[in-house]
Amino acid sequence: MFIDGQHLKQACKYNNGRKAGMDSNFDVSSADEKFIDLELKYSFQEKLLSDLNDALISQQKQLDLLKHELAVLKQHLAESSEADPKAEQYKSVDERPPHY
């Protein structure tokens, strides 16, 4: 569960006040605020890492699919050129197109 900074600070303020036997107006010390900020940064980094991992997995699936489709197209091209003997004459890369 993701907790935003304001809720986390309020929870820490409440918990610190209860532990110290103080009222709810207890101020969070500078060290506690730094600790809370570090926890927030860590939680944001954790979420970012999870999102990036999901994006990477998605892109890898797309890449695998494209590789498979390319292999199928190459196979179809090879089979069609074997079936059509006239296709050999059009394989030359250096040959000028007919409109020149």
**Rg:** 32 Å
* Overall domain count: 1
Number of strands: 0
Query: Structural class, from secondary structure content?
Result: mainly alpha
Strand-residue proportion: under 5%
Q: How is the main sheet built?
A: none
Determine the fraction of residues in helical runs and give it as a percent range.
over 70%
Are there runs of 5+ residues with pLDDT below 50, and where? Answer: none
What is the CA-CA span between the terminal residues?
A: 67 Å
Report on the structure:
By secondary structure, the protein is mostly helical. The protein has one domain (5-83). Helices cover 70% and strands 0% of the residues. The chain has helices at residues 5-20, 30-83. Helix 1 runs antiparallel to helix 2. It is rod-shaped and about 85 Å long. It starts with a helix and ends in a 17-residue tail after the last helix. The model has no long low-confidence stretch (mean pLDDT 78).
Would you kindly provide a brief summary of this structure?
This protein has 100 residues and is mainly α. The protein has helices spanning 5-20, 30-83.
List the helices and strands and how they pair.
Blueprint: H1 5-20, H2 30-83
Please name the defining characteristics of this protein.
single chain, 100 residues, mainly alpha, rod-shaped
